[in-house]
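Weekly modeling sync, notes
Attendees: S.R. (lead), two postdocs, one rotation student

Agenda item 3: backlog of single-chain predictions. S.R. asked that every request posted to the team notebook include the full sequence so nobody has to chase files. The rotation student volunteered to paste the first one in as an example of the format we agreed on. Action items at the bottom.

Example entry:
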Amino acid sequence: MLKMNDDLEGALREYLALLDREEYFEAHEVLEEAWHPLRLSGHPLRNLVKGLINGAITFEHIKRNSKNMPFKAQKVIASYERYKHMSTSRIEYAELFARACKKIELLKVKHNEVFDVLVS
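Predicted structure, as returned to the notebook:
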């Protein structure tokens, strides 16, 4: 059985690969599976992971062009925005978290018509 940290590292790697393939719902699912034990244990990175989960779901709303998509996307991305500052060089798996945040930021730029107030 893998340790929780091994599960998180693997989930982050898979999350990044799925974002590259624009498989946002699947990226959300992979990271959510690793998030549950973090949440239950009160792990300090649980909110950052939850923010990345919501980051992926944001782009699934855009991909599906769901009803009220701009509103839904802006509402869901707020969780990512609230916790992205936790991705620092001092955390476990800092490089993977930094890459994940960079991907979300690049997706926000790609979809700047939805996030014009969040993209600098």
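Discussion: group reviewed the output briefly. The first helix runs from residue 4 to 20.
Action items: rotation student to repeat for the remaining queue; S.R. to check formatting next week.
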